[in-house]
């Protein structure tokens, strides 16, 4: 996992704030490789930790549930926001995206952790929110 710490905690309250925050993760050379980023937030929606948890080949990326949950417990996260990209250009969640997110949400619930959203980015400005789509 690659870890980056924000200089001052970014506020991730709301769809637009989260979209703007994560969009920088998927520009330039990062746009061609599928990657999963997770922002851990406190109970005021401030980002306390941002990590790149996976990098995939051939249009797929694994969602490391145990690692994400363990980090959330260690950090004292109140919630997590996930973001990954689809280099194919279609931000529609795949059936595998939906299954993996539901599995993570069930595990998170067991430790009173909220999966705030899972956002999927494609191209420059396309983004789908699984929360807004009713999939979370």
From TrEMBL:
InterPro entries: MPN, RadC_JAB, UPF0758, UPF0758_CS. It comes from the Bacteria. Keywords: Hydrolase, Metal-binding, Metalloprotease, Protease, Zinc. One of its GO terms (biological process) is proteolysis. Residues 11-136 form the MPN domain. GO terms for molecular function: metal ion binding; metallopeptidase activity. PANTHER family: DNA REPAIR PROTEIN RADC, UPF0758 PROTEIN YEES-RELATED. This is DNA repair protein RadC.
């Amino acid at each position: 996992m690659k870890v980056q710490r924000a200089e001052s905690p970014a506020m991730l309250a709301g769809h637009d704030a989260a979209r703007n925050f994560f969009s920088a993760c998927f520009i330039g050379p990062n746009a061609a490789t599928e990657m999963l980023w997770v922002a851990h937030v406190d109970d005021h929606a401030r980002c306390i930790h941002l990590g790149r948890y996976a990098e995939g080949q051939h249009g797929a990326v694994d969602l490391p549930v145990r690692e994400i949950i363990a980090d959330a417990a260690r950090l004292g996260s109140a919630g997590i926001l996930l973001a990954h990209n689809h280099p194919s250009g279609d931000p529609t969640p795949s059936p595998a995206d939906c299954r993996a997110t539901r599995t993570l949400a069930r595990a998170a619930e067991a430790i009173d952790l909220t999966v705030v959203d899972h956002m999927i980015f494609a191209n420059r400005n396309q983004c789908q929110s699984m929360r807004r789509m009713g999939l979370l």
